[in-house]
Amino acid sequence: MFKVKVYVTLRESVLDPQGKAVTQSLNSLNYQEVTDVRIGKYMELMIEKSDRDLDEVVNEICTKLLANPVIEDYRYEVEECVAQ
Amino acid sequence: MKFAVIVFPGSNCDVDMFHAIQDELGEEVEYVWHDTESLAEYDGILLPGGFSYGDYLRSGAIARFSNVMKEVVKAAEAGKPILGVCNGFQILLEAGLLPGAMRRNESLSFICKPVELKVETNRTIFTAEYEQGQTITIPVAHGEGNYYCDEQTLAQLKENNQIVFTYQQNPNGSLEDIAGIINEKGNVLGMMPHPERAVDELLGGADGLKLFQSIVKTWREANVVNA
Predict the structure, then answer these.
(1) d(CA B149, CA A11)
(2) Touching check for A71 and chain B: CB below 8 Å?
(3) A40: closest CA among A80, A83, A70, A75?
(4) Residue A40, SS3 per DSSP
(5) Which residues from chain B sit within 8 angstroms of residue A22, using beta carbons?
(6) Which pLDDT tens digit goes with each residue over A28-79?
(7) How many domains does chain B divide into?
(8) Which family does it belong to (chain A) (predicted)?
(9) CATH number of the domain encompassing residue B192
(10) Which CATH architecture has domain A2-80?
(11) Which structural domain, as residue segments, surrounds residue B213?
(12) Catalytic site residue from B71, B86, B94, B144
């Protein structure tokens, strides 16, 4: 069993209105050192071992459903864990 | 002409759409549930606004994998008129039937008000009854209508006259004031404003009715002898 942690964020080239609002808010709280905030989504997938290559499966899942490649980027981390 | 109003769990403008077609336009219309296996009997497909599947993950992301969407793709390929309004537009984008994607409104607010639109082209089956360049008033109601596409796609949209409606005063930050676009073939239109909410002066305006009348007129001309 694998635990796959997927992070989806807006692509660098795409303005993130939520992140911009949070940046401004942090600046107004006197955290002037914060220059940018990007808001994204975090998902945990439990995936059973199968014949298919895990990276292939995860990339397929991400491009098909979890992220919209037109505006979003994704990355993921894999942890092997014992099934409960 | 027989229309289908596709109903997803979370659609909430389906009744308005049904009313616009049946009572104001005077055409045949049926509600069609999202797990329907065939749309063969319908001449026009309408994807209404709302919050299909609670907008989980992204607006339209889950709805686009529902059973009926395979049929919507087939209908699009067959050249049937397909109109997606608001969440319906978002679903068409997620399904890849139209290019681009929606971001949160620039202001982060849910915007619900009548807006002025410019009819950028009346050479479509959806806008034939409008004047070229005409200003019409149609309400918007959305939190994610901030249209985005890459430069290459934008250039293609312009070159092929696929930008059908633009905002006179951009309410949401959308690229190039885009409010509605059509596919290259000219039979799939997505728009954020709600024409079905502007079909009777009692509702504050009837500028949306001509959009539906355009669909019916061009369909009759193509499909009915002696139309």
Answers:
(1) 12
(2) yes
(3) A75
(4) strand
(5) none
(6) 999 999 999 999 999 999 999 999 999 999 999 999 999 999 999 999 999 9
(7) 1
(8) Belongs to the PurS family.
(9) 3.40.50.880
(10) 2-Layer Sandwich (3.30)
(11) 2-223
(12) B86
